[in-house]
Amino acid sequence: MERLLTIKECSTILNLNYRTVLKLINNGFINSIRIGRTHRVNPKELEKFMNSANEDSIIYEMK
Question: How many domains does the chain have?
Fold first, then answer.
């Protein structure tokens, strides 16, 4: 079983603000699981998100 990443760890990997990563999760761009009041992200899901950012057909718009 892989170790799940916290939002803070994801923000460090993506070089984004904590709240930006949380918005990406809440808008469905990054899949996560919720444990209590916190989110955890599978490293494979984070990799999938990073790979999808290279595709020209995907436009990320956050509200």
Answer: 1
Is residue 40 in some structural domain?
yes
Domain housing 15: 7-52
Site of tokens 């057909």: 57
List beta partners, residue 43: none
pTM: 0.79
* 27 in any annotated domain: yes
pLDDT, tens digit (0-9, with 9 covering 90-100), for 17-48: 999 999 999 999 999 999 999 999 999 999 99
